[in-house]
Amino acid sequence: MHVPMSRRAALLALAATGVVVGGAAIGWRRLHRPAPRKELLIAGASAMVGLNEALAKEFSRLHPDVDIVVDKGGSLPALLALKRGAIDLAAMSRDLTVLEDDLRVRNFMIARNEISILVNKALPLKALSSQQVRSVFAGEVTNWKQVGGPDAAVHVISRTDGSSSRLFIEDVVLDGRDIVPTAQEMQTHQEVAQRVAADPLAIGFIALNYQHDVTATVKYLEIDGVAASRETILSGRYPFMESFYLVGTRKEGPAHDFIAFALSPAGQKIVAQRFFIPIG
Fold first, then answer.
1. Residue 109 domain-assigned?
2. Is 242 within the bounds of a domain?
3. CB within 8 Å of 141: residues ≥ 6 apart
4. Is residue 202 included in any domain, yes or no?
5. H or E stretch including 54?
6. Spatial separation of the C-alpha atoms in residues 209 and 188, rounded to whole Å
7. Domain containing 96: what range?
């Protein structure tokens, strides 16, 4: 397959910066071998990089003639790059909008995830409504007494700007608004949980696929009376849910085969192993 110079340059640049698929860097030797038959470039949401790398590792074992590069870059930039022909698959942590969805592309949901709201175990609250969560993270609720808790200030704990979970909170939960400026920002999900565990008045958020890493003792709230579980997420009852998509063109080839693999029982097993929720 002939690859345009700009596309090949992008592939080599990604390889040179140490892009990793399944724990092994794709080096110059592999990408620079004479006339590789097939190439597959996947880019998009940072939340999907680890999952895509794991899928790519097994896909490469089954299809040794395909050279794969996995990178991040964001959902929208990846979609635009796909439509330009610069990449083969866009990994998106949201569905296509009406304006984005056109005859050139097809999107396939491969996994789901949820954002849990966590508080200190000492806080006498078991649940909040979606609207209450929205008001807390927007800064409209500043005292726990306003939502049935103690007469004490709310301490909002957030991820840093640009993290996928924060983007979800701001885009979906807050309807495009920013998290309250007084929120304490943490670099990792472990730091969020540790800070909440250390502060009896704290509230934060964490994605399901990171909860297995959390060793701090915290409490996850029911939202609208619904606890997060595989059943409530797949049924759509749990409100703070995000879906993950692979978006490709309508052409046959490695991208089409990769999507089929991601949706297969073997691919969905990898989805579960990466602590996402399989859709199959």
1. no
2. no
3. 132, 135, 147, 154
4. yes
5. helix 49-62
6. 13
7. 5-104+250-278
DSSP E strand boundaries for 121-257: 127-128, 155-159, 184-186, 202-207, 218-220, 222-223, 241-249
Mark whether 123 and 218 lie in a shared domain: yes
| Angle between helical axes of 265-273 and 254-263 (0-180°, round to 10) | 70
Query: Which helix (H) or strand (E) covers residue 238, if one does?
Result: none
Angle between helix 49-62 and helix 265-273 axes, rounded to 10 deg: 140
| Structural domain count, the chain | 2
**209/159 same-domain check:** yes
Tell me the C-alpha distance between 65 and 254, whole Å.
10
> pTM score, two decimals?
0.73
Q: Give pLDDT tens digits for 8-59.
A: 455 444 444 434 444 443 343 445 555 557 999 999 988 899 999 999 999 9
Phi, psi at residue 266, to the nearest 5°? -65, -40
